[in-house]
Amino acid sequence: MTFQKTLNNSLVRYMELIPGTSAFIDARTPGSHLKDNFCIIGAGVAENSKQHVHIRETAGFNIGAAGQPPGIKNSLHSHNSAELFIIFKGEFRFYWGNEGQYDTVLSPGDVISIPTNLFRGFEVVGRDYGFMFSVLGGDDSGGGVVWHPEVLSQSEGHGLYLKSDGSLVDTLAGDPVPESSELMPKLTDEEMENFDQYSVEQMQPFVVAKSNYRPVVSSFNSLNENPDYQEYALTGSPLAQDDFQVKSEDKVSIFAYELNNRAGLPTHSRKEKQVLINYSGDTLVKVNNGLEQGQILMTPGDVFSIPEGTAISLENQRGESLVYSILSSDQPVKPELQSGKKDLKLG
Ligand SMILES: [Fe+2]
């Protein structure tokens, strides 16, 4: 396979995303239907084995997405691994707690890291279809979703069954009805008491609104001098050398780069696995593996899993580029700048 083909296979275009409409047990419960679920990198926590997965190979984390019209709920559930969201389109109301009694509304560009062991759900408010990217910590996403008992009760009678191994049975798609002994047991009142409750105030440190992005000293040397460049350290461990705005031990970190008027990042490599999400503008990513070079032009909503062992540069081509970089560690080391010019052939 040519190097450029490898790069093309590591890119998922927003326009080419294939949704699953019955990824989870609540997919046919009235008020929770009409949802699109996307597995972009890794199978995430989708319960339906027929869900399309764009890139199977995980990056130490999974990237998915949720898309839904206003008024449709993604029901209360909890995760055993980190779950972060980057809002891309529309307004999302997140609600959390054992009764979903707390909430906040997030807008495009806002980022939230939801603590584990906490029931959470979300719906789109306003008039427009909402779309957001999700980042799930770990290659196996912590083993799946834990549903609120009421979600399992309300799913009954709609042809979907969740087995205790986490797999979904769809009798409308021809699967046989499972025995009740095979089904996922509902959490008891006692088990429910073990889940955490966060007030709205306690959740604030886990949210960074786009309007509150705070520029940091750049990891790329002299770029701070460039008025067309801003770097943001959005989420990562409190123990990291970077001063992340959301301090959370998610086993991933998220940076954002704002690039205007053809500003860019110089060629560099990372120790961690890296995925780029292009939020806005057109951004040219040049990639080399030391021998060959190729490139990808990212447009809004595109996701690019950077092949391991490569170095990349970024350059704004059109509009205002805002690019998220998701790394496979919450304590990332600084990028290594590639010095000197190597004789690279275009692959
Ligand atoms: Fe979730």
Keywords:
single chain; 347 residues; mainly beta; Jelly Rolls; eleven-stranded mixed sheet; 4 helices; 41% strand; binds fe (ii) ion
The secondary structure category is mainly beta
- Report the order of strands and helices: HEEEEEEEEEEEEHEEHHEEEEEEEEEEE
The total domain count is: 2
Hetero groups: fe (ii) ion
Dominant shape? globular
Range of helix content:
under 10%
Contiguous uncertain segments of 5+ residues: none
Residue fraction in strands: 35-45%
User: From the 3D coordinates, which CATH architecture of the largest domain would you assign?
Assistant: Sandwich
Q: Work out the number of β strands.
A: 25
Radius of gyration: 21 Å
Number of continuous helical runs: 4
CATH class value of the largest domain: Mainly Beta
Polypeptide structure, described:
The chain has 347 residues and is mostly beta strands. The protein folds into two domains: 191 residues, Jelly Rolls, CATH 2.60.120; 134 residues, Jelly Rolls. The protein contains four helices and 25 strands. A hairpin with a 5-residue loop joins strand 13 and strand 14. The strands form four sheets. Strands 1, 16, 17, 18, 19, 20, 21, 22, 23, 24 and 25 form an eleven-stranded mixed β-sheet that branches. Strands 3-2-4-11-6-9-15 form a seven-stranded mixed β-sheet, with no helix packed on it. Bound molecules: fe (ii) ion.
